[in-house]
User: Which sequence fits this backbone?
């Protein structure tokens, strides 16, 4: 049982690292593009992953920067979320999992997930609003298509974090029982 | 915590060291230290019985309730 768990955790660790690196590349690419779009506006037609937002930029700079900020913030938060996940997986001791560090990390993961979910939802509503005004924003939908999934996941993780906190309490009580 | 552990008082009365008591009741020194310093959150009846046997006393000699209001 324990050997199987160790194997699963090793695989999870590798997958989390791959996702983290991918998200860092995405966030980094978006940050660089954002800096370029501030100082070199002609770069806007060839953004990260062949995003072309030149039409939005020429029509309304406010719309461009707000939507781009949403995409950027969501990417950074996703990268940070996986950084916390990796930190948790690295420090998690399967023989003694109930400690305050793990409980705090799980709670932190739930907060980041909720932030991503709410921000994605807000971005999606703003995008819908801009769509009604005739802006072409379908290319940006990939950044916030999963907002509801994130909100639901945040709720589930929060419940797990609360149960874990109780587990830590019971563990410390058990440790102090002579 | 309104429950006070008077283990050190009883140990002094019986002139017994923590090491000796630890050997007699088969408890680790760290666990006995937790109990002695009042950090323990619970005491098993078996532990209490072993301590009472080793110190030749009653549970009331070791544990005391103090109203802290």
Assistant:
């Amino acid at each position: 049982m324990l050997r199987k768990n160790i194997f699963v955790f090793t695989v999870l660790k590798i997958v989390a690292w791959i996702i983290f690196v991918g998200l860092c590349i995405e966030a980094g690419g978006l940050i660089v593009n954002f800096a370029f779009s501030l100082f070199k506006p002609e770069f806007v037609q060839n953004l990260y992953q062949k995003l072309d937002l030149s039409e939005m930029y020429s029509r309304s700079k406010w719309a461009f920067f707000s939507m781009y900020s949403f995409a950027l913030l969501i990417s950074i938060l996703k990268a940070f979320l996986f950084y916390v996940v990796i930190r948790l997986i690295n420090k998690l001791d399967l023989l003694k999992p109930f400690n305050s560090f793990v409980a705090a990390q799980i709670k932190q993961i739930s907060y980041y997930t909720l932030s991503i979910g709410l921000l994605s939802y807000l971005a999606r509503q703003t995008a819908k609003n801009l769509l009604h005004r005739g802006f072409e924003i379908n290319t940006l939908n990939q950044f916030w298509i999963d907002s509801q999934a994130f909100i639901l996941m945040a709720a589930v993780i929060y419940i797990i974090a609360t149960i874990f906190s109780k587990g830590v309490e019971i563990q410390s009580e058990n440790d102090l029982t002579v | 915590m309104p429950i006070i552990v008077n283990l050190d008082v009883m140990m002094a009365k019986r002139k017994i060291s923590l090491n000796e008591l630890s050997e007699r009741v088969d408890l680790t020194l760290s666990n006995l230290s937790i109990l002695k310093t009042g950090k323990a959150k619970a005491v098993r009846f078996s532990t209490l019985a072993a301590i009472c046997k080793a110190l030749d006393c009653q549970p009331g000699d070791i544990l005391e309730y103090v109203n802290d209001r």
The mean pLDDT of chain B is 89. The two ends of chain B are 11 Å apart (CA to CA). Chain B touches chain A through twelve residues (CB under 8 Å). Strands of chain B lie at 3-5, 63-65.
